[in-house]
Amino acid sequence: MNKFNSVVIVALVSFAFFSVPVVYAGAPDVYVVYLAKDKKLGKSVALAIANMLPESSRVKSYNATILLVSDYSGKQKTAARLSKAKLVVFVKGRHSPAEVLDSNDFDNLVQVQSISDEDLAKVRENFQGIE
Amino acid sequence: MPLYHFIARCFCFLIVCTSFNLQAMNPISALGKLSDSLRETTDGRVNLSGYINAHYMKHDGMPEFLERDPNEALIQVREASIFADLLVTDNLLFSTELETSYDLSDKNASGRDKRLKGALNYYYFDFDIAAMRDWELDGLGNLNVRFGRILVPFLQYNENKPNFKQTLMSQPFTAWQVVPSNNAAIDFEQYGWTDFGLMLNWSREFNQGILNLKVAVINGLGVEGAVLDTNEVTLSSTMMMAMSMGSDMDSSMGSSMDMDPDMSSSMDSSMDMDSDMSSSMDTSMDTMMAVHPTVRVRDGLHNARSDWDDNSDINSDLAYSAKLTFTPYALPLNIGVSLYSGAWDEDADQNLTMTGIHVDLTQPRWHVKGEIVRAEVEQTAGLNPVVAMGPSGVNISTGDYSMSASYLEGAYSVKKYGDNNSQYVKLVLRYDRVNTNDEASFTPFHRSRQTFGVEWQFVKDVRLRAEHQRHTLEDFENAPGPFVAAGGEEEITMDMLSIIANF
Q: For the whole model, what pTM was predicted?
């Protein structure tokens, strides 16, 4: 790899970090995890949780179907990143994220099936317990 | 039977017996708990997982080499790997894989210089740009940037090479001969094609599915010298070679396996001589001597891969690799195309281009998957002058040439049982082909192969596999005399028993 190529690589990495308005977001407070076939449900759960929690809380959704295109340690990397959130919510609709991620990798896991009051209350209780 | 051979077999037997008793002992589960405990202790910053496998492997019909006999049984702990993912910050991750191997075989079988070998297969930083910028998968998409020694994104096998992700222990030709994912089991180097560079990994969700694009800028494959596939072996058979009064060898008797078939037939007569005769011997006035022919194997691109700890480039040019994959929601399908391009020689004048297609169709009970790859090699044509005894100086090249390989694999779980159906018996069939040849002459890596396998997961995450293979070499009637005299046959069989566990 010659000097020019090194410069190109450094430039690319720098561009990714510095050239666009930077967010540098840390881990969200809540990760809502679902599979592709339950996307609508997953999104609505994420929205309902965001509306329920204090405005300062960050709620992010994660479509775990993306693991189908990851390499062999992708599952571990995903688990490591998701578990940095205060709370991880598995949305169990037609399928469950537990089919591609190991529930045991998360100490802060809650499973919901809908946006019912009961499920949302379960999320709120767990979230408040952690905070 | 030598004592250490006996001990090795006892050890292998012990591994198998222990595995059958894993339900009670469950060491894999213990390792998993250890990993969980480490993660908790470090507040999720250190994450470990891994796998181990051991195998008994026996070939028949391979030519015997001077240094070893590939038909002797191999007993090896082939891979004992740990993946470590360290969260440096919430969005920056350092990832590495420590891979070790231990050879229990007779050295005459494996030819390995050391019993224990190890490598850091990959080591890189991974920046989660999408998380940093709060991008959504169905918005701007997920974007990760990797920098360091990365797994090269090319076809499906290379990114899923651990055998616990596969249903057969043996590798398809696409990942063995053309894409340099795996060496032959005989010689442990490292499993997985990795290279130093930078990779962008972008995924976006559409209504119909997920599109994933990986683009890598890497050092690339390359060798020093005028030919790309430089691997060579010395056959146990002998042949007569004409020598001039000096040290030069008559070029018409070149010992390359790529020799002209007519030339090889003229050598057959020399095969009748005493095979123990390895020292030089005068058979005519003073110009004939018996030698063990060293031949260029034409076994693909193994030798062009850099070692795990060598991040220097063979030339000043970068190489590029890209993989585009689509996973539709309507079908349990993963389909993609891959491209690699880069100069392989020191002057960066000769290019290597590879294109490939992969398909994975996966259901809970069965799967069908396959890969096709084609490599186009630019190479200067011509017969190199022979200046010394041995083949290094012997190279018949026809100039530009192509290599190809493909495989199709199907598997079906005939029985599932236990908690959550986590135990099963699966039947596997694979057919693959390879041709590393420029069709100028015979090469043993123009062949087809059928593999029949059974996989039995008898405890969660612990599997036993039995495999039988039958290889058929193409164009065998043109095989050179020394190849046949060394025991090379048209049909090669292989039997393998292996155990694989992951945590």
A: 0.84
